[in-house]
Amino acid sequence: xxxxxxxxxxxxxxxxxxxxxxxxxxxxxxxxxxVTGMLQKLAAQRPLLVLYEKHRGVRLTAxxxxxxxELVRHHxxxxxxxxxxxxxxxxxxxxxxERLEHFISERFEDRVAAILGDPETxxxxxxxxxxxxxxxxxxxxxxxxxxxxxxxxxxxxxDRNAASLRxxxxxxxxxxxxxxxxxxxxxxxxxxxxSRGAFTRLDRDLANCILVAAS
Amino acid sequence: xxxxxxxxxxxxxxxxxxxxxxxxxxxxxxxxxxVTGMLQKLAAQRPLLVLYEKHRGVRLTAxxxxxxxELVRHHxxxxxxxxxxxxxxxxxxxxxxERLEHFISERFEDRVAAILGDPETxxxxxxxxxxxxxxxxxxxxxxxxxxxxxxxxxxxxxDRNAASLRxxxxxxxxxxxxxxxxxxxxxxxxxxxxSRGAFTRLDRDLANCILVAAS
DNA sequence: ATACGGAATTAGCCATACCTAAATAGTAAA
DNA sequence: TTTACTATTTAGGTATGGCTAATTCCGTAT
Lengths: 215, 215
Prior knowledge:
The first copy, chain A, is α+β, with helices and mostly antiparallel strands and 215 residues long. Chain A has helices spanning 2-12, 21-28, 32-43, 62-84, 93-100, 106-116, 162-170, 204-207, and strands at 50-53, 57-60, 141-142, 152-157, 178-184, 188-193, 199-203, 210-214. In chain A, the strands form two sheets. In chain A, strands 3-8-4-5-6-7 form a six-stranded antiparallel beta sheet.
């Protein structure tokens, strides 16, 4: 159930849009029918966690949002902890955090946050929500949607694909790095990384993993 | 299933004695019937993890022992990690470790061990088995069975009762502490703690939590 | 040798969360 | 407006690991 709440939160995005059965099924790697079943179970929970209307999708209630953001906080704290303390590489943290986020206690959460000094972002640049609070959304867009020749700073990267993360690291495309898009074609982008001055070609899939914001 | 393997290991002790359904049910806080069901499932696993004969109890095979010791290693590493790194008090570590031991990856295990410098004992004095190896059993006896007036060193303490642990800590009865039993009655023991020189009265339940060895 | 009592097992259920296959609802195009 | 496609839901089944109640086994004490 936790997984569903988190997925609804993440798929709904900043607008908290209604999320479809199909989108949830894809994200959670289960069948549509399983999602329907689970949504019905979730909708029967008291206190109410989701608003679900048949054939119309699902949204989180305030209580559902609280729970989901708590999981996101767990996840991002764990990622940073695994990276900074246990010396995981940044492509290794997601999978372990995804598993452990469900099982750590409040005490664990608090101690990790304390050790890390109440950090603001995880290794992929995502904001770590404050305890008991909803996360905030940054203004960021995927790199292919950024205008040409305009300075941008990488705000975060997609964390669910280890191979892409390794590639990004190899290319020095980490959160905080400034760049500009020189060319944006169907199949690839050419970017200039400010600190290096060098031009780099990124295929579309990789470019889609990069979120940028104005500097 | 993991819980059952670990319980069989721990209840079997150094002699690797056959473990009864009832003993398992008590340790795992489930009903006898549930244990019988689970033992049948375990006995049907390939590779074979347990030797189970109806009405005669259960023992671990070599493969079952490997798995169980791995869990014990996870548990004890986690306890030390929670204590030393996350600053848990020693009465708080057991519960969290008991939950997390099932979910950490091999990588997590290895990194924790590395950070802690391949430690030998957990906060309660229990030996941490080496990776991929069976644990070894120390010669230790519970304090009430130790002869009067003979110097003993606390080798380990029972870790499953937080209140007792807090009491032991308050009394300075930690692993490594030397003491002698002055008086051993039905209801309590009087011990002299070497470093303090002071006498302390322990009720029987508390004394049973303390395992000692010759210095 | 037998009867008793506790330990263990069987039989039959429950809940969770997944699955496939079949039926239905909603939407967009003809 | 009807058709056709796709999303969604329903129906019915699986595995895991619990449960209670009823039965059976085993060892001890008579």
